[in-house]
């Protein structure tokens, strides 16, 4: 029967663990229950800096025949809380010993903290501080990764994060976006870095909506004061998604697999970030071309509609040409305060396809659109046609692009707006 934690032997300190480590050339190994433990490092890259800024330390176990043992099986050997604490500290001791003599004397070392240690063992002790003193590794070069998980003691989790921050380490929340991750923990724990779970990237690879959600999550995390790392990048397309999402750091097999050959890490060929960013710029320029086509195609019709309105024509007459285009959904007029001043004109195609479930949103008389960026831009730059990126239109809950043009009529500034169906653009723009 496993010993309860309260009956465990003395908490393992640095001196107790030291005999379990052995030096092999330029690296260290550790012995644990008949297995040999080694450090594997996987580089972490900054997309903006186009270079390595850190390494995640991962444990690799081997039996007497030098056959690899799955990490899952290794941690299953730690049957009690005391055993788990010992293994957790032994792994960190091993990783820091190896990284202290590593060729890189600048970048971060990312270390994982066992969830069971966080929930059941106190971190407010001298072990980690003593370990850093013994190895000479400055605390500001350590990023402590804490896995997101349900915990019975939120105060203990907060205490753990605070302990490492007071030591001078950076902290990271791992696997955000999976399981029990939520923004409340981000706000409560104030980590320096958030590692997004690879499932977010996997979904974004096949689902455009998931890609937009990923971009939104990154934006919210940045607003919360966190740097963002996306792990699990395995393909060129996923690297493009990571760049487009605005993440700060990337990690994954596409860039470099973990390796126990630490002395060869500096000689390895990493993914060419210059080429990757060049590919992104080329691809992004291509995606902007339809926007340029859109403004060029509709600009003349917009100015004609505005001229007609200034001459006293009704909206129906002034916007007829615009509304007859198959991609156009609706036209509406807004004053300089963002308030709609006439009823919305809906194209015949849109009228036939209105979703009755969103009927409460159809009437926009006196609606206030000032919050919309396209409106503020049109007010700030009268006479210049503005265009948005695709977004969800609240009027009908469909994706659209909005064109807007500010103009003066009888001394007042008005804005003519036109919503275009985003899903109709690809086919139609090829014929513009």
UniProtKB/TrEMBL annotation:
The record's PROSITE patterns line, in alphabetical order, gives: EAL
Q: Where is the EAL domain?
A: 20-272
GO molecular-function terms, A-Z = cyclic-guanylate-specific phosphodiesterase activity
Give a single Pfam family match: EAL
Family matches, as PANTHER family: CYCLIC DI-GMP PHOSPHODIESTERASE PDEF, SIGNALING PROTEIN
Q: What is the protein name stated in its UniProt record?
A: EAL domain-containing protein
């Amino acid at each position: 029967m496993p010993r309860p934690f309260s009956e465990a032997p003395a908490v393992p300190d640095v001196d107790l663990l030291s005999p379990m480590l052995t030096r092999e050339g330029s690296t260290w190994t550790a012995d644990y229950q008949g297995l040999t433990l080694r450090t594997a490092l996987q580089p972490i890259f900054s997309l903006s800096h186009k270079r390595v800024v850190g390494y995640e330390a991962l444990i690799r176990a081997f039996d007497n025949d030098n056959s690899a043992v799955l990490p899952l099986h290794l941690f299953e050997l730690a049957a009690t809380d005391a055993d788990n604490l010992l293994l957790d500290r032994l792994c960190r001791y091993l990783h820091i010993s190896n990284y202290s003599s590593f060729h890189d004397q600048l970048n971060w070392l990312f270390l994982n903290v066992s969830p069971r240690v966080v929930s059941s063992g106190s971190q407010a002790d001298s072990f980690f501080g003593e370990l850093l003193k013994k190895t000479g590794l400055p605390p500001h070069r350590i990023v402590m990764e804490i896995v997101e998980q349900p915990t019975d003691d939120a105060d203990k989790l907060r205490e753990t994060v605070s302990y490492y921050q007071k030591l001078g380490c950076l902290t990271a929340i791992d696997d955000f976006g999976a399981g029990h991750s939520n923004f409340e923990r981000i706000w409560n724990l104030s980590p320096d870095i958030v590692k997004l779970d690879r499932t977010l990237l996997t979904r974004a690879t096949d689902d455009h909506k998931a890609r937009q959600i990923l971009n939104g999550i990154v934006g919210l995390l940045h607003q919360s004061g966190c740097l963002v790392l996306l792990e699990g990048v395995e393909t060129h397309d996923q690297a493009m998604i990571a760049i487009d999402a605005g993440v700060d750091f990337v990690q994954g097999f596409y860039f470099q697999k973990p390796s126990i050959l630490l002395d060869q890490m500096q000689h390895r060929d990493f993914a060419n970030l210059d080429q990757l960013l060049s590919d992104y710029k080329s691809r992004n320029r291509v995606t902007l071309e339809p926007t340029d086509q859109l403004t060029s195609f509709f600009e003349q019709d917009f100015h004609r509609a505005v001229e007609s309105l200034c001459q006293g024509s009704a909206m129906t007459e002034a916007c007829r040409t615009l509304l007859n285009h198959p991609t156009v959904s609706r036209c509406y007029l807004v004053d300089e305060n963002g308030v709609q001043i006439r009823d919305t004109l809906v194209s015949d195609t849109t009228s036939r396809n209105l979703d009755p479930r969103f009927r409460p949103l159809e009437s926009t008389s006196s609606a206030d659109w000032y919050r919309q960026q396209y409106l503020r831009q049109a007010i700030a730059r009268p006479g210049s046609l503005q265009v948005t990126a695709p977004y969800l239109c609240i009027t009908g809950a469909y994706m659209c692009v909005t064109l807007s043009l500010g103009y003066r009529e009888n001394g007042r500034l008005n804005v003519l707006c036109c919503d275009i169906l985003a899903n109709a653009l690809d086919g139609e723009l090829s014929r513009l």
